[in-house]
Amino acid sequence: MKPHADGPRWLNIFHFASPYQFYPLAGRLIPLFATLAVLLAMAGLWLGFAIAPADAQQGEGYRIIFLHVPTSWMAMLIYVAMAFWSVMHLILRTRLSAMMAQALAPTGALMAFLSLFTGALWGKPMWGTWWVWDARLTSMLLLFFLYLGFIALTRSIDEPDRADKAGSVLAIVGVFNVPVIYFSVKWWNTLHQGASISMEKGSTMASTMLIAMLLMSLAAWMYAITTTLSRVRNLILQREARTRWVQELLAIPANKA
Amino acid sequence: MYWNNLSDFIAMGNHGVYVWGSFFACAAALCLEWVLIKSQRRNIVRQIRRSATIQQMNPTSPAVSKDAS
User: Fold this and answer.
1) Testing the interface with A: which of B1, B7, B9, B15 to mutate, by most A Cβ within 10 A?
2) For A92-113, how does the pLDDT look when each residue is reduced to its tens digit (9 = 90+)?
3) SS3 for chain B, per residue?
4) Rounded-to-integer distance, Cα A103 and Cα A111, Å
């Protein structure tokens, strides 16, 4: 790795686009984000499950919101992040961008699944049904399938360059589902309740509940960053297995031949 | 503290099954994901070491790439 002539190397954003440079950086960041995730989740759970009062309409059952909303937000945000890295991959041709998209996908799929699962457990006592073909529920289910499709597609192509390109295109096409999910409760007036927090009206929740929900959402962010960085490190190791730096990292003795 | 006693906390106003079901599903899923990532890493490292050993016993196989980036 030769030093850059134009200024300090940490000023160059492309410096860390190299898997060789990004691998140790990710390794240093993981403990930081993992600690933040645990602390924020503990604070959020304490506030949401021990301090916050019961909801006027839904009683204690509303507490599922502290799990349902963060997982739903994360499912949508991770998809947007995946589409962002896919665009970066197609424009800048950086391999790390495509690896980031592929590292995000399993966590996104898990978040979408948990959103649907906690939603079903919330719907049963409040609506009297586990599932309805409501606009929001259906579009969230579609998001879950888009994640699964992305994972299946990228893993079924053996050649990394082609897998990256095909995955990027799929991720970008699918991103149009995210605004549909977000605005679905506004566009179609169906069973799912409207947003508790909106851009125009602010929050309609009590402040303790709101803070708990925001803490849980931040914890979900930190968790997703932690798992994505760990998974991208796995992907880097796998793809760079034959390079000298990986061999040196794993202390494999150099080939004398 | 909102709760008077532990049994109220567990009952969650007769919605305990749904609330705690959601909670443990999320906790279990996130822990499982973390464990899977860790075991995936162990497998990858093991595989790289194994193929390096094979290559040293058989130097005619393709050499380590010099490209570092």
Assistant:
1) B15
2) 989 999 999 999 999 999 999 9
3) CCCCCHHHHHHCCCCHHHHHHHHHHHHHHHHHHHHHHHHHHHHHHHHHHHHHHHHHHCCCCCCCECCCC
4) 14
Residue A243 is nearest to which of B37, B49, B65, comparing CB atoms? B65
Q: Nearest residue on chain A to B54, judged by CA atoms?
A: A255
Q: What is the pLDDT of residues A3-12, one digit of tens each?
A: 445 555 555 6
When the pLDDT of each residue in chain B is averaged and rounded to a whole number, the result is 84
Window 7-66 of B: residues touching A by CB (8 A cutoff) are 9, 12-13, 15, 18-19, 21-23, 25-26, 29-30, 33-34, 37-38, 40-41, 44-45, 47-49, 51-52, 55-56, 59, 62-66
Q: How does DSSP classify residue A20?
A: H
Domain boundaries, chain B: 6-55
Give the pLDDT confidence score for residue A157 in this predicted structure: 94
The owner of tokens 């962010």 is A221
A230–B37: do the CB atoms touch at under 8 Å? yes
Give the total number of structural domains in chain A. Answer: 1
Please determine, for residue B56, whether its predicted confidence score (pLDDT) is greater than 90: no
What percent of chain A lies above the pLDDT cut of 70? 89
Mean pLDDT of A55-82: 92
A242 in a structural domain: no
Place of tokens 């190791």: A237
What H or E segment, with its residue span, contains residue A16?
none
Quick check: is A60 in a domain? yes
Tell me whether residue A11 is in a domain: no
- Packing angle of the helix pair A160-174, A65-92 (nearest 10 deg): 130
pLDDT at B68 over 50: no
Domain interval for residue A191: 24-237
pTM of the full structure: 0.87
Indicate whether A203 pLDDT > 70.
no
* Cβ distance of B12 and A250 shorter than 8 Å: no
